[in-house]
Amino acid sequence: MQFDLAFALSTVPTILGAIGMTLLVAAVSCVGASAIGFGLELIRRSGGLGGLFVRFLIDFIRATPVLVWLYCLYFILPFYGIRLGALATGMIGLSLYYSGYLAEVFKAGIDAIPNGQGEAARALGLGRMDMTVFVIAPQMLRNIAAPMGNYFVSILKATPYLAVLAVPEMLGRAFDIASETYRYAEPLTVAGLIFLGLALLISLAIKRLENRLMGPTARLAAGRLPNG
Fold it and tell me: How far is CA 55 from the centre of its chain?
């Protein structure tokens, strides 16, 4: 069976009709994973029993497949009286899963900040929250823009997993077309190309953000170079 370009083009509007759902899931999951991951890293750094538990939790999250989280949230929680919709399950599952990876990214970003920054903040009388928000976080973001962007792209590429929960995202819509027409190459190719375009756009945006964040550092370094 040859690839039918006309049929492939005819599937584009149907598949693009689900792009809003895909972007919504990806955006909410990126924000959720970032917030949870940053919180986990702060707790891990606090030490004590809480820090030990979070250390184990992060390793556990990273050692389990994302589908396990989705199935547990969707099929097991109802046995305990907790019922979540398919969309909520997908966003929560992706947020929890990728929070473990982003926690490691935040760890690397904070470790790259010189210890003198925290000591200077404490010397100025800044509290823990102010030091985290105004001193640690801005410098950390400058260090982790690129790896964070990579995980955001990974979250986008993980949205097709929600098809197992009947969430109407792009790949699920492509499979619907394929099951109705018995032609898989065309709709799956279209969905793949759309995902590729979205991933490239996110990578470009992250690159521009990284250059903007690194701008002050680059100008400061240039100013320190000897003349001539």
Answer: 20
- Given a contact cutoff of 8 angstroms between Cβ atoms, the answer to whether 178 and 188 are in contact is yes
Q: What's the per-residue H, E or C state across 171-185? A: HHHHHHHHHHHCCCH
d(CA 49, CA 27) in angstroms, rounded, equals: 33
Q: Does residue 170 contact residue 188 with C-beta atoms inside 8 Å?
A: no
What's the burial of 124, exposed, middle or buried (CB within 10 Å: 0-12/13-18/19+)? exposed
Report d(CA 152, CA 38) in Å as an integer: 15
pLDDT band at 216 (very low <50, low <70, confident <90, very high): low
Alpha-carbon torsion angle 171, 175, 176, 182, nearest 10: 150
Structure tokens at 118: 């925290």
Q: Taking the model in full, what pTM does it have?
A: 0.85
| Residue 113 phi, psi (nearest 5) | -80, 130
Number of neighbours of residue 87 by Cβ within 10 angstroms: 18
Question: Which residues are within 8 A (CB) of 203 and not within 5 positions of it... i.e. 6 or more apart?
Answer: 149, 153
* pLDDT per residue as tens digits for the range 67-108: 999 999 999 988 988 888 999 999 999 999 999 999 999 999
Distance of CA 194 to the CA centre of its chain: 18
